[in-house]
UniProtKB/TrEMBL annotation:
InterPro entries assigned: Ribosomal_uL4, Ribosomal_uL4-like, Ribosomal_uL4_dom_sf
Start and end residues of each stretch annotated as Disordered: 54-100
Name assigned to this protein: Large ribosomal subunit protein uL4
Cellular component aspect of the GO annotation: ribonucleoprotein complex; ribosome
Keyword terms, alphabetized: Ribonucleoprotein, Ribosomal protein, RNA-binding, rRNA-binding
UniProt GO BP: translation
Function: Forms part of the polypeptide exit tunnel. One of the primary rRNA binding proteins, this protein initially binds near the 5'-end of the 23S rRNA. It is important during the early stages of 50S assembly. It makes multiple contacts with different domains of the 23S rRNA in the assembled 50S subunit and ribosome.
Subunit structure and binding partners: Part of the 50S ribosomal subunit.
A GO term, aspect molecular function: structural constituent of ribosome
Biased composition (Basic residues): 64-81
ATP-binding found in the keyword field: no
C-alpha cells in the first residue's frame, strides 16, 4: 500500500510503499493481549519476599511438654500460627516471565503496526532532525502536527539534537527500530515512523 510521507513542518515530502504482510494484516486483539501480558510479566521485578519458618528468629525447641498441661500440643515458636512466627505460603523472590513462541511475538508486532495503519494513526516522516536543542520549539511543532500522545520510532540511531529536544515532552516516547515493541505502540495514540524505521522494521519482520 502507498502512503504519504510528511516532514516536521507538516508538508508532504513524497510517498512510500508499505509492505502488506507487515502493515496490512487483519486486527487480532487476542495476539496483542498475549504479547502485552508477556512484556509486562517480564518487566516485573519479582523481589517481594517474606520470612518462612526456617528464616525467622527463634528457637526450634518445643515450648512445653506434649502431655499433661491441658493445652494444645505445640512444636515450636517459629510456626506460622505463633506470634512472631514465619509466614506460610508467602511470596518469594522469583521471575514472573513466561514463554511465548517467537513466531507469535513477531506476528503480534506486525498486528500492532497494521492496527495503527488501519485506524489512520500511523504517520510516516522523511527524517527527524533538529538544528538546535529546543524543547519549546519541538513542542510547538508536535502540537501543530497533533502528536499529543505519540511513539516516535527512528532507524538504527536517533539524531542527537532531536532526541534531546523531544525526550522531556509528556506522553511522547522515543525509540529506535530495534526497540520497537507492541506495548509501547499500543500505549500511545499516534505511531510516527521515519522512512529508515519502516525499512528496518520490514527487514526485521519479513
Amino acid at each position: 500500500m502507498k502512503v504519504n510521507v510528511i516532514n516536521l513542518e507538516n508538508k508532504k515530502a513524497g510517498d512510500i510503499e508499505l509492505a502488506d504482510d507487515v502493515f496490512g494484516l487483519a486486527p487480532r486483539a487476542d495476539l496483542l493481549q498475549r504479547m502485552v501480558r508477556y512484556q509486562l510479566a517480564a518487566r516485573r521485578a519479582g523481589t517481594h519476599k517474606i520470612k518462612g519458618v526456617a528464616e525467622v528468629s527463634g528457637t526450634g525447641q518445643k515450648p512445653f511438654k506434649q502431655k499433661g498441661t491441658g493445652r494444645a500440643r505445640q512444636g515450636q515458636k517459629r510456626a506460622p500460627h505463633q506470634r512472631g512466627g514465619g509466614v506460610a505460603h508467602g511470596p518469594v523472590v522469583r521471575s514472573h516471565a513466561h514463554d511465548l513462541p517467537k513466531k507469535v511475538r513477531k506476528l503480534a508486532l506486525k498486528t500492532a503496526l497494521s492496527t495503527k495503519q488501519a485506524e489512520g494513526k500511523l504517520v510516516i516522516v522523511d527524517e527527524l532532525k533538529a538544528k538546535d536543542v529546543k524543547t519549546k520549539l519541538m513542542a510547538g511543532k508536535f502540537k501543530a502536527l497533533g502528536w499529543d500522545s505519540a511513539l516516535i520510532v527512528d532507524g538504527a540511531e536517533m539524531e542527537k539534537n532531536f532526541a534531546l529536544s523531544a525526550r522531556n515532552l509528556p506522553k511522547v516516547d522515543l525509540l529506535t527500530s530495534t526497540g520497537a515493541n507492541v506495548y509501547d505502540i499500543l500505549r500511545r495514540d499516534t505511531l510516527v515512523l521515519t522512512k529508515s524505521a519502516v525499512e528496518s522494521l520490514e527487514a526485521r519482520l519479513k
